[in-house]
Amino acid sequence: MSDWLLDLPKVELHCHLEGSMSSATVKALATAHGADWSEVWTGKIPDHFSFVDFPDFGRQYLFGLSLLKREGALVTAVDDLAAQLAEQNVRYVELTTTAYSHFLNGMPREQYRDELDEGRRRAAERGVEVSWVIDIPRDLEMPGEGVTVDYLESALTPNGLIGIGLGGYEVGFPAAPYADQFRRAKALGLHALPHAGETEGADSVRQAVVDLGAERVGHGVRVLEDHELTQRLVDTGIMCEVCPTSNLLLGVVDDIADHPLQRMIDAGLRVCVNTDDPGWFDTDLVTELSIASEELSVGRPQHLAMQRDATAACFAPADVRRRIVEELDVFERART
User: Fold this and answer.
1) How many domains does the chain have?
2) Would you please indicate which residues are annotated as catalytic (active-site) residues?
3) What is the value of pTM for the model shown?
4) Which CATH number is 237's domain given?
5) Which residues does 301 contact at the CB level (< 8 Å), separation at least 6?
6) How big is the chain by its Cα radius of gyration, in Å?
7) How far apart are CA 14 and CA 79, in angstroms?
8) I need a surface site. Which of 39, 135, 221, 304 has the fewest CB within 10 A?
9) What's 102-145 look like in SS3?
10) pLDDT tens across 186-235, in order?
C-alpha cells in the first residue's frame, strides 16, 4: 500500500509553512544564528520533538518561527518543504503562513512578501504549485488589533494568496469575535478557511461556519459531538481538513485507533487527510495516508475519492485542478 500511496497524485490543504521545519533545520538555523533555546529545551535541541499539550507545542513552535526572520530563511523553508512534497508526488499545496508572527519578530512586510514569492517560484520549478492562506493566530492577535487583515488589504501580499485562516489555541479564544476581519478579507475575494473543532468542541465549528462563513474547516474532528451541526456540514459540503498525527500528539485523541476519521466518512462528511505541521510532528503526507489505511480502515477507493474531493475543494487555478484530475484518471486506470 505504501508504494501505491507514494505514487498516488496528491494535494494537501492543511499544512503550516512555519510548522514544516524539521528538527535538523531548527538545529541548523539556531546554531548558525547563535539562538538561545534554553527556555524551550534543557540541553540540546531534541532529535525528535515531543509535546505535553498544545501550549507546550506552541512554545516550541514559536521558537522555530523566530529563526525564520533571518534573510533567506523563509525561502529555504518553502523550498525544503517543496522538495519533500515533490518526492511524494504532491502536485498542489495550500500553505498556511502566519504573517502576524513574522511582523512581531521584526520582519519587514516587503521581505515577507518577496521571500514567499521566491519560495513559491522555486516550488513551481520542482513541480509543486503553492497557494497561500494567511492566518490570524487567535491566541496572539486579539480581535481588536486587525494587523493581519490590514496587511491583506495592503499592496504587499504575496502572489498566490487565496485565503484567510484562523489558527492558534482555541481554548479561551473563540472564533466569533473575528467575524469583521473575515468579512473584510472576503470582500477582497479571499476564502474563509479557519481552524475549528480541534482543542474545542462542536461550538467552535459552529462559530467558524456561522460567524466566519467557513468554506472549509481546519481539523473539525469534534463536529461529531453535535449531530445537527454534523448534518449541516454534510448538507452544505463543507470539507474538514483532518490531521491524524497532529490530533494524537496534541492530545485531541488519546490513541490513533480512536481517531474519528472513519466515523466522519461514515457520517457523510467531506474529509481530506493532511500533515498540519510535518516537521514538528515528524511526519509527511504519505505517512498520514498510511495511518489512515493501517489504523483507520481507509481503502484505496476511499483514498482516490478523497484526493478527487480535495482537488474539487481546493482553490487552485482551473488548469491546475484539471491537470490533477487527469493524472488521477490515468493513475486509477493503471493502478486499480
Assistant:
1) 1
2) 198
3) 0.94
4) 3.20.20.140
5) 336
6) 19
7) 17
8) 39
9) HHHCCCCHHHHHHHHHHHHHHHHHCCCEEEEEEEEECCCCCCCC
10) 999 999 999 999 999 999 999 999 999 999 999 999 999 999 999 999 99
